[in-house]
Amino acid sequence: MARFSPFDASLWYATAAPAPKTEPLDSNVRADVCIVGAGYAGLTTALELAKAGVRVVVLEAQEAGFGGSGRNAGHCTPTFTHYSLPQLRKMLGEPWAERLIARQTRANDRVSSMIRDYQISCEWVQNGYVMGALHPGALQVARQRVDEYAAVGASVRLLEAVEIEAVTGSPRFIGGWRHQEAGHLNPLSYARGLAHAAMQEGVTLHTASPVISAAPEGGGWRIGTATGSVLAEKAIFASGAYTVGGWPKLDRTFHIMRVFVAATQPLSDETRRTVLPENTTIHDGRGDIYVYKYNAEGRIVASMFPMGRRGKDLAYTRQVMSDRLRWLHPQITEGIRWDYFWFGELDMQVKTVPRLYALAPGVVALTGLSGRGVPTGSMLGGILAEWALGVPDKDLSLRLEPLRSAPFYMRFGPKLSLRCQRTFDNIATRRAGSLLPPHA
Protein backbone atom coordinates (compact mmCIF):
# COMPACT_ATOMS: atom_id res chain seq x y z
CA MET A 1 0.00 0.00 0.00
CA ALA A 2 1.21 3.48 -0.82
CA ARG A 3 1.41 5.97 2.05
CA PHE A 4 1.66 9.69 1.60
CA SER A 5 1.42 12.94 3.54
CA PRO A 6 -1.09 15.77 2.96
CA PHE A 7 1.49 17.65 0.91
CA ASP A 8 2.84 14.90 -1.33
CA ALA A 9 1.90 16.89 -4.42
CA SER A 10 -0.46 19.85 -4.13
CA LEU A 11 -1.32 21.66 -7.34
CA TRP A 12 -2.11 24.80 -5.37
CA TYR A 13 1.29 24.94 -3.71
CA ALA A 14 2.89 24.51 -7.12
CA THR A 15 0.89 27.29 -8.77
CA ALA A 16 -0.37 29.73 -6.10
CA ALA A 17 0.49 33.41 -5.98
CA PRO A 18 3.26 34.26 -3.48
CA ALA A 19 2.41 34.57 0.19
CA PRO A 20 2.97 37.91 1.93
CA LYS A 21 6.16 38.33 3.89
CA THR A 22 5.48 37.64 7.56
CA GLU A 23 7.41 36.84 10.73
CA PRO A 24 6.72 34.82 13.89
CA LEU A 25 5.55 36.71 16.95
CA ASP A 26 8.66 37.38 19.06
CA SER A 27 7.46 39.98 21.60
CA ASN A 28 4.53 41.02 23.75
CA VAL A 29 2.11 43.24 21.81
CA ARG A 30 -1.32 44.81 22.24
CA ALA A 31 -4.41 44.73 20.04
CA ASP A 32 -8.13 45.32 20.22
CA VAL A 33 -8.82 41.86 18.81
CA CYS A 34 -6.58 38.80 18.50
CA ILE A 35 -7.60 36.23 15.88
CA VAL A 36 -6.19 32.70 15.93
CA GLY A 37 -6.06 31.12 12.47
CA ALA A 38 -5.25 32.66 9.08
CA GLY A 39 -7.74 30.80 6.91
CA TYR A 40 -10.71 32.32 5.12
CA ALA A 41 -12.74 32.93 8.28
CA GLY A 42 -9.90 34.46 10.27
CA LEU A 43 -8.60 36.62 7.44
CA THR A 44 -11.99 37.97 6.35
CA THR A 45 -12.79 38.78 9.98
CA ALA A 46 -9.50 40.63 10.31
CA LEU A 47 -10.16 42.48 7.07
CA GLU A 48 -13.61 43.62 8.18
CA LEU A 49 -12.39 44.76 11.58
CA ALA A 50 -9.38 46.62 10.20
CA LYS A 51 -11.62 48.51 7.78
CA ALA A 52 -13.68 49.57 10.83
CA GLY A 53 -10.58 50.97 12.54
CA VAL A 54 -9.96 48.06 14.91
CA ARG A 55 -6.38 47.04 15.78
CA VAL A 56 -6.09 43.36 14.84
CA VAL A 57 -3.33 40.81 15.32
CA VAL A 58 -3.69 37.41 13.61
CA LEU A 59 -1.70 34.43 14.90
CA GLU A 60 -1.22 31.47 12.57
CA ALA A 61 0.53 28.24 13.53
CA GLN A 62 1.84 27.59 10.01
CA GLU A 63 1.21 30.01 7.13
CA ALA A 64 -1.79 31.80 5.66
CA GLY A 65 -4.09 29.25 4.04
CA PHE A 66 -2.20 26.26 5.43
CA GLY A 67 -5.33 24.36 6.47
CA GLY A 68 -8.54 23.71 4.60
CA SER A 69 -8.37 27.14 2.96
CA GLY A 70 -5.34 26.08 0.94
CA ARG A 71 -6.08 22.38 0.47
CA ASN A 72 -9.66 22.34 -0.81
CA ALA A 73 -10.64 21.68 -4.43
CA GLY A 74 -11.45 25.32 -5.21
CA HIS A 75 -15.21 25.06 -5.68
CA CYS A 76 -17.21 28.08 -4.57
CA THR A 77 -20.89 27.14 -4.47
CA PRO A 78 -23.07 29.22 -2.10
CA THR A 79 -25.34 26.42 -0.89
CA PHE A 80 -25.47 24.15 2.13
CA THR A 81 -23.63 20.84 2.18
CA HIS A 82 -26.06 18.28 3.53
CA TYR A 83 -29.42 19.59 4.70
CA SER A 84 -32.19 21.08 2.58
CA LEU A 85 -33.36 24.60 3.41
CA PRO A 86 -36.60 23.36 5.06
CA GLN A 87 -34.52 20.98 7.19
CA LEU A 88 -32.20 23.82 8.19
CA ARG A 89 -35.13 26.00 9.20
CA LYS A 90 -36.46 23.23 11.41
CA MET A 91 -33.06 22.41 12.89
CA LEU A 92 -31.80 25.96 13.54
CA GLY A 93 -35.08 27.72 14.26
CA GLU A 94 -35.89 31.33 13.52
CA PRO A 95 -34.56 33.94 13.13
CA TRP A 96 -31.23 32.10 12.97
CA ALA A 97 -32.03 29.95 9.95
CA GLU A 98 -33.18 32.79 7.69
CA ARG A 99 -30.23 34.95 8.67
CA LEU A 100 -27.73 32.20 7.90
CA ILE A 101 -29.48 31.23 4.67
CA ALA A 102 -29.33 34.85 3.55
CA ARG A 103 -25.61 35.06 4.34
CA GLN A 104 -24.70 31.77 2.72
CA THR A 105 -26.72 32.15 -0.46
CA ARG A 106 -25.14 35.58 -1.11
CA ALA A 107 -21.64 34.52 -0.08
CA ASN A 108 -20.29 34.57 -3.63
CA ASP A 109 -21.16 38.25 -3.88
CA ARG A 110 -18.72 38.75 -1.03
CA VAL A 111 -16.04 36.53 -2.59
CA SER A 112 -16.34 38.28 -5.94
CA SER A 113 -16.20 41.76 -4.44
CA MET A 114 -13.12 41.03 -2.34
CA ILE A 115 -11.32 39.55 -5.34
CA ARG A 116 -12.25 42.60 -7.39
CA ASP A 117 -11.57 45.27 -4.73
CA TYR A 118 -8.18 43.89 -3.72
CA GLN A 119 -7.20 42.66 -7.19
CA ILE A 120 -6.59 39.11 -5.93
CA SER A 121 -5.11 36.94 -8.67
CA CYS A 122 -6.62 33.50 -7.97
CA GLU A 123 -8.05 32.09 -11.24
CA TRP A 124 -11.57 33.22 -10.26
CA VAL A 125 -14.30 32.37 -12.76
CA GLN A 126 -18.03 32.48 -12.04
CA ASN A 127 -19.45 30.12 -14.66
CA GLY A 128 -21.75 28.14 -12.42
CA TYR A 129 -22.11 24.76 -10.73
CA VAL A 130 -24.00 21.80 -12.17
CA MET A 131 -25.19 18.78 -10.22
CA GLY A 132 -26.18 15.92 -12.45
CA ALA A 133 -28.82 13.25 -11.87
CA LEU A 134 -28.09 9.65 -12.82
CA HIS A 135 -31.48 8.22 -11.79
CA PRO A 136 -35.05 9.54 -11.30
CA GLY A 137 -34.68 9.89 -7.52
CA ALA A 138 -31.71 12.21 -7.97
CA LEU A 139 -33.68 14.24 -10.51
CA GLN A 140 -36.47 14.71 -7.96
CA VAL A 141 -33.91 16.03 -5.48
CA ALA A 142 -32.67 18.43 -8.18
CA ARG A 143 -36.21 19.78 -8.62
CA GLN A 144 -36.50 20.34 -4.87
CA ARG A 145 -33.16 22.17 -4.72
CA VAL A 146 -34.16 24.46 -7.58
CA ASP A 147 -37.44 25.31 -5.87
CA GLU A 148 -35.76 25.95 -2.50
CA TYR A 149 -32.92 28.13 -3.74
CA ALA A 150 -35.02 30.02 -6.28
CA ALA A 151 -37.36 30.96 -3.42
CA VAL A 152 -34.51 32.75 -1.62
CA GLY A 153 -33.34 34.60 -4.71
CA ALA A 154 -30.57 32.35 -6.07
CA SER A 155 -30.06 32.11 -9.83
CA VAL A 156 -30.85 28.42 -10.33
CA ARG A 157 -32.70 26.30 -12.87
CA LEU A 158 -33.52 22.72 -13.71
CA LEU A 159 -31.71 21.14 -16.65
CA GLU A 160 -33.20 18.55 -18.98
CA ALA A 161 -31.01 15.77 -20.39
CA VAL A 162 -30.19 17.62 -23.62
CA GLU A 163 -29.30 20.82 -21.74
CA ILE A 164 -27.08 19.17 -19.18
CA GLU A 165 -25.17 17.28 -21.86
CA ALA A 166 -24.54 20.55 -23.69
CA VAL A 167 -23.26 22.21 -20.49
CA THR A 168 -21.16 19.33 -19.15
CA GLY A 169 -20.26 17.33 -22.22
CA SER A 170 -21.42 14.15 -20.46
CA PRO A 171 -24.11 11.89 -21.98
CA ARG A 172 -24.71 10.07 -18.69
CA PHE A 173 -27.11 12.43 -16.91
CA ILE A 174 -30.89 12.27 -17.26
CA GLY A 175 -31.08 15.85 -15.99
CA GLY A 176 -29.83 17.97 -13.13
CA TRP A 177 -29.71 21.52 -11.84
CA ARG A 178 -27.50 24.55 -12.28
CA HIS A 179 -26.49 27.30 -9.86
CA GLN A 180 -25.30 30.09 -12.13
CA GLU A 181 -23.71 32.21 -9.37
CA ALA A 182 -21.23 29.51 -8.34
CA GLY A 183 -17.59 29.74 -9.31
CA HIS A 184 -14.17 28.21 -8.82
CA LEU A 185 -10.67 29.44 -8.08
CA ASN A 186 -7.18 28.59 -6.86
CA PRO A 187 -8.00 28.42 -3.14
CA LEU A 188 -4.47 28.97 -1.84
CA SER A 189 -3.99 32.02 -4.07
CA TYR A 190 -7.28 33.34 -2.72
CA ALA A 191 -6.18 32.79 0.90
CA ARG A 192 -2.85 34.47 0.28
CA GLY A 193 -4.64 37.30 -1.48
CA LEU A 194 -6.85 37.80 1.56
CA ALA A 195 -3.72 37.89 3.74
CA HIS A 196 -2.21 40.58 1.51
CA ALA A 197 -5.49 42.53 1.65
CA ALA A 198 -5.75 42.31 5.43
CA MET A 199 -2.19 43.51 5.88
CA GLN A 200 -2.86 46.32 3.40
CA GLU A 201 -5.70 47.44 5.68
CA GLY A 202 -3.40 47.46 8.72
CA VAL A 203 -3.73 43.94 10.15
CA THR A 204 -0.61 42.46 11.76
CA LEU A 205 -0.17 38.81 10.72
CA HIS A 206 2.29 36.55 12.52
CA THR A 207 2.86 33.12 10.97
CA ALA A 208 4.75 30.16 12.48
CA SER A 209 3.19 31.27 15.78
CA PRO A 210 1.08 28.48 17.29
CA VAL A 211 -1.00 29.55 20.27
CA ILE A 212 -0.25 27.64 23.46
CA SER A 213 -2.17 29.59 26.10
CA ALA A 214 -5.05 31.97 26.71
CA ALA A 215 -5.55 33.64 30.06
CA PRO A 216 -7.62 36.59 31.35
CA GLU A 217 -5.64 39.71 32.19
CA GLY A 218 -6.68 43.27 33.00
CA GLY A 219 -10.19 42.91 31.61
CA GLY A 220 -8.89 41.37 28.40
CA TRP A 221 -7.06 38.25 27.27
CA ARG A 222 -3.40 37.39 26.90
CA ILE A 223 -2.99 34.97 24.01
CA GLY A 224 0.43 33.36 24.25
CA THR A 225 2.83 31.66 21.87
CA ALA A 226 6.21 30.12 22.66
CA THR A 227 8.02 33.39 21.92
CA GLY A 228 5.52 36.17 22.60
CA SER A 229 1.94 37.14 23.42
CA VAL A 230 -0.94 39.39 22.39
CA LEU A 231 -2.90 41.28 25.04
CA ALA A 232 -6.31 41.99 23.48
CA GLU A 233 -9.77 43.04 24.60
CA LYS A 234 -11.33 40.20 22.61
CA ALA A 235 -10.13 36.94 21.05
CA ILE A 236 -11.50 34.82 18.22
CA PHE A 237 -10.41 31.23 17.56
CA ALA A 238 -10.97 30.46 13.87
CA SER A 239 -8.61 27.55 13.22
CA GLY A 240 -11.31 25.07 12.14
CA ALA A 241 -10.23 21.51 11.38
CA TYR A 242 -6.59 22.41 12.04
CA THR A 243 -7.20 23.39 15.67
CA VAL A 244 -4.33 22.18 17.85
CA GLY A 245 -4.36 23.37 21.45
CA GLY A 246 -5.01 27.03 22.13
CA TRP A 247 -8.18 26.49 24.16
CA PRO A 248 -9.09 23.40 26.22
CA LYS A 249 -11.37 20.93 24.43
CA LEU A 250 -11.93 23.13 21.38
CA ASP A 251 -10.59 20.35 19.16
CA ARG A 252 -13.31 18.04 20.50
CA THR A 253 -16.16 20.04 18.98
CA PHE A 254 -15.76 18.20 15.67
CA HIS A 255 -14.35 15.02 14.17
CA ILE A 256 -12.00 14.96 11.23
CA MET A 257 -13.06 13.57 7.87
CA ARG A 258 -10.44 13.44 5.17
CA VAL A 259 -10.94 14.27 1.50
CA PHE A 260 -8.47 13.89 -1.35
CA VAL A 261 -8.00 16.06 -4.39
CA ALA A 262 -6.13 15.22 -7.59
CA ALA A 263 -5.25 17.08 -10.77
CA THR A 264 -4.53 15.74 -14.25
CA GLN A 265 -2.06 16.96 -16.81
CA PRO A 266 -3.33 19.91 -18.90
CA LEU A 267 -5.84 18.39 -21.30
CA SER A 268 -5.78 19.09 -25.01
CA ASP A 269 -7.79 21.90 -26.59
CA GLU A 270 -9.75 19.26 -28.49
CA THR A 271 -10.80 17.53 -25.26
CA ARG A 272 -11.68 20.81 -23.57
CA ARG A 273 -14.02 21.77 -26.38
CA THR A 274 -16.34 18.88 -25.47
CA VAL A 275 -15.56 18.17 -21.79
CA LEU A 276 -16.86 20.92 -19.48
CA PRO A 277 -17.09 23.28 -22.47
CA GLU A 278 -18.52 26.11 -20.32
CA ASN A 279 -15.83 25.76 -17.61
CA THR A 280 -18.37 24.97 -14.91
CA THR A 281 -17.92 22.96 -11.72
CA ILE A 282 -19.56 19.53 -12.05
CA HIS A 283 -20.93 17.23 -9.35
CA ASP A 284 -21.91 13.81 -10.66
CA GLY A 285 -24.93 13.76 -8.35
CA ARG A 286 -24.02 10.66 -6.37
CA GLY A 287 -23.93 10.76 -2.58
CA ASP A 288 -20.43 9.33 -2.79
CA ILE A 289 -19.31 12.41 -4.63
CA TYR A 290 -17.09 12.97 -7.62
CA VAL A 291 -16.71 16.73 -8.17
CA TYR A 292 -14.46 18.21 -10.83
CA LYS A 293 -13.57 21.37 -12.77
CA TYR A 294 -10.67 22.90 -14.70
CA ASN A 295 -7.91 25.06 -13.33
CA ALA A 296 -6.41 27.90 -15.38
CA GLU A 297 -3.95 25.53 -17.07
CA GLY A 298 -6.69 23.20 -18.31
CA ARG A 299 -6.10 20.48 -15.73
CA ILE A 300 -9.09 18.58 -14.38
CA VAL A 301 -9.12 19.01 -10.60
CA ALA A 302 -11.30 16.32 -8.99
CA SER A 303 -12.11 15.36 -5.42
CA MET A 304 -13.52 12.31 -3.66
CA PHE A 305 -13.68 10.89 -0.16
CA PRO A 306 -11.49 7.94 0.87
CA MET A 307 -13.33 4.64 1.07
CA GLY A 308 -11.74 1.21 1.43
CA ARG A 309 -8.67 1.05 -0.84
CA ARG A 310 -9.60 4.39 -2.39
CA GLY A 311 -7.37 7.01 -0.82
CA LYS A 312 -4.94 4.45 0.61
CA ASP A 313 -3.60 2.70 -2.47
CA LEU A 314 -2.40 5.53 -4.71
CA ALA A 315 -2.26 3.52 -7.97
CA TYR A 316 -5.75 2.13 -7.38
CA THR A 317 -7.09 5.57 -6.45
CA ARG A 318 -5.77 7.10 -9.65
CA GLN A 319 -7.38 4.28 -11.62
CA VAL A 320 -10.74 4.87 -9.91
CA MET A 321 -10.60 8.57 -10.72
CA SER A 322 -9.59 7.96 -14.33
CA ASP A 323 -12.29 5.34 -14.87
CA ARG A 324 -14.98 7.61 -13.41
CA LEU A 325 -13.88 10.54 -15.58
CA ARG A 326 -13.81 8.42 -18.74
CA TRP A 327 -17.20 6.91 -17.92
CA LEU A 328 -18.71 10.37 -17.51
CA HIS A 329 -16.96 11.57 -20.68
CA PRO A 330 -16.48 8.71 -23.16
CA GLN A 331 -15.19 11.21 -25.73
CA ILE A 332 -11.88 11.53 -23.86
CA THR A 333 -9.37 9.69 -26.02
CA GLU A 334 -6.12 11.01 -24.65
CA GLY A 335 -4.33 9.37 -21.74
CA ILE A 336 -5.20 10.59 -18.26
CA ARG A 337 -2.28 11.25 -15.94
CA TRP A 338 -2.87 12.47 -12.40
CA ASP A 339 0.12 14.73 -11.80
CA TYR A 340 -0.95 16.01 -8.37
CA PHE A 341 -2.56 14.31 -5.40
CA TRP A 342 -3.12 15.71 -1.90
CA PHE A 343 -5.34 15.53 1.19
CA GLY A 344 -7.35 17.97 3.23
CA GLU A 345 -9.32 17.63 6.45
CA LEU A 346 -12.90 18.65 7.24
CA ASP A 347 -14.17 19.60 10.70
CA MET A 348 -17.40 17.61 10.66
CA GLN A 349 -20.21 17.98 13.16
CA VAL A 350 -23.87 17.04 13.22
CA LYS A 351 -25.47 20.22 11.90
CA THR A 352 -22.94 20.63 9.05
CA VAL A 353 -23.21 24.41 9.46
CA PRO A 354 -20.63 26.48 11.36
CA ARG A 355 -20.94 26.58 15.16
CA LEU A 356 -20.15 29.72 17.13
CA TYR A 357 -19.05 28.94 20.67
CA ALA A 358 -18.94 31.37 23.60
CA LEU A 359 -15.74 30.24 25.35
CA ALA A 360 -15.59 33.01 27.97
CA PRO A 361 -16.54 36.70 28.22
CA GLY A 362 -14.80 38.32 25.25
CA VAL A 363 -13.74 35.03 23.62
CA VAL A 364 -15.47 33.01 20.89
CA ALA A 365 -14.53 30.13 18.61
CA LEU A 366 -15.83 28.99 15.25
CA THR A 367 -15.62 25.39 14.05
CA GLY A 368 -17.64 22.94 11.99
CA LEU A 369 -17.64 24.26 8.42
CA SER A 370 -18.09 20.60 7.40
CA GLY A 371 -16.75 20.89 3.87
CA ARG A 372 -18.30 24.00 2.30
CA GLY A 373 -15.24 26.13 2.89
CA VAL A 374 -14.71 28.84 0.25
CA PRO A 375 -18.04 30.71 0.32
CA THR A 376 -18.83 29.79 3.92
CA GLY A 377 -15.45 30.78 5.32
CA SER A 378 -15.60 34.01 3.35
CA MET A 379 -19.01 35.09 4.64
CA LEU A 380 -18.25 34.14 8.25
CA GLY A 381 -15.86 37.07 8.57
CA GLY A 382 -18.83 39.39 8.55
CA ILE A 383 -20.52 37.53 11.42
CA LEU A 384 -17.39 37.31 13.56
CA ALA A 385 -16.57 40.96 12.92
CA GLU A 386 -20.06 41.96 14.03
CA TRP A 387 -19.59 40.03 17.27
CA ALA A 388 -16.24 41.75 17.88
CA LEU A 389 -17.78 45.16 17.15
CA GLY A 390 -20.40 44.62 19.83
CA VAL A 391 -23.49 43.59 17.87
CA PRO A 392 -25.84 42.01 20.45
CA ASP A 393 -25.81 38.22 20.49
CA LYS A 394 -29.51 38.09 19.61
CA ASP A 395 -28.84 40.00 16.38
CA LEU A 396 -26.02 37.80 15.05
CA SER A 397 -26.51 35.36 12.18
CA LEU A 398 -25.15 32.45 14.21
CA ARG A 399 -26.44 31.52 17.64
CA LEU A 400 -23.79 31.69 20.37
CA GLU A 401 -23.60 28.29 22.07
CA PRO A 402 -21.74 26.85 25.06
CA LEU A 403 -18.74 24.73 24.13
CA ARG A 404 -19.76 21.14 23.57
CA SER A 405 -18.03 18.07 22.23
CA ALA A 406 -19.20 16.40 19.04
CA PRO A 407 -21.13 13.18 19.76
CA PHE A 408 -19.09 9.99 19.62
CA TYR A 409 -20.95 8.69 16.56
CA MET A 410 -19.42 11.46 14.45
CA ARG A 411 -16.27 9.33 14.48
CA PHE A 412 -17.95 6.95 12.05
CA GLY A 413 -21.25 8.61 11.08
CA PRO A 414 -20.12 10.62 8.03
CA LYS A 415 -18.25 7.65 6.54
CA LEU A 416 -21.19 5.35 7.18
CA SER A 417 -23.50 7.91 5.57
CA LEU A 418 -21.34 7.93 2.42
CA ARG A 419 -21.54 4.14 2.16
CA CYS A 420 -25.31 4.21 2.67
CA GLN A 421 -25.74 6.89 0.02
CA ARG A 422 -23.60 4.89 -2.40
CA THR A 423 -25.77 1.81 -1.81
CA PHE A 424 -28.96 3.82 -2.28
CA ASP A 425 -27.67 5.34 -5.52
CA ASN A 426 -26.65 1.93 -6.84
CA ILE A 427 -30.09 0.43 -6.10
CA ALA A 428 -31.92 3.41 -7.61
CA THR A 429 -29.74 3.34 -10.72
CA ARG A 430 -30.30 -0.39 -11.28
CA ARG A 431 -34.06 -0.02 -10.82
CA ALA A 432 -34.05 2.67 -13.48
CA GLY A 433 -32.27 0.30 -15.86
CA SER A 434 -29.28 2.63 -16.11
CA LEU A 435 -25.59 1.84 -16.09
CA LEU A 436 -23.61 2.09 -12.89
CA PRO A 437 -20.36 4.05 -12.97
CA PRO A 438 -17.20 1.95 -12.57
CA HIS A 439 -16.10 1.10 -9.02
CA ALA A 440 -19.59 1.94 -7.76
Basic shape: globular
| Head-to-tail CA distance between termini | 21 Å
Count of helical stretches? 13
- Which class of the domain at 22-73 and 188-254 and 350-406 in CATH terms? Alpha Beta
Give the CATH superfamily of the domain at 22-73 and 188-254 and 350-406.
Answer: FAD/NAD(P)-binding domain
Mean of pLDDT: 95
CATH architecture of the domain at 22-73 and 188-254 and 350-406: 3-Layer(bba) Sandwich
Helix content: 25-40%
What structural category arises from helix and sheet content?
alpha/beta
Strand content: 15-25%
Query: What is the rounded Rg?
Result: 21 Å
Instruction: Please report the total strand number as a whole number.
Output: 19
Largest sheet: 9 strands, mixed
Low-confidence stretches: 1-7
CATH overall fold name of the domain at 22-73 and 188-254 and 350-406? FAD/NAD(P)-binding domain
What would you note in describing this structure?
Strands 1, 2, 8, 9, 10, 11, 17, 18 and 19 form a nine-stranded mixed sheet that branches. An eight-stranded mixed sheet has the order 5-6-4-13-14-15-12-16, sandwiched between helices. It has a two-stranded antiparallel ribbon with strand order 3-7. It is of the alpha/beta class. A hairpin with a 4-residue loop joins strand 14 and strand 15 (299-304). The protein has 13 helices and 19 strands. Helices cover 33% and strands 24% of the residues. The protein has helices spanning 11-15, 40-51, 68-71, 85-92, 96-105, 107-117, 136-151, 161-168, 187-200, 269-274, 314-328, 373-388, 413-431, and strands at 28-36, 56-59, 75-76, 129-133, 156-160, 175-179, 183-184, 204-206, 213-217, 220-224, 229-237, 255-266, 281-283, 291-294, 299-304, 338-348, 355-360, 363-367, 400-402. It has a domain at 22-73 and 188-254 and 350-406: FAD/NAD(P)-binding domain, CATH 3.50.50.60.
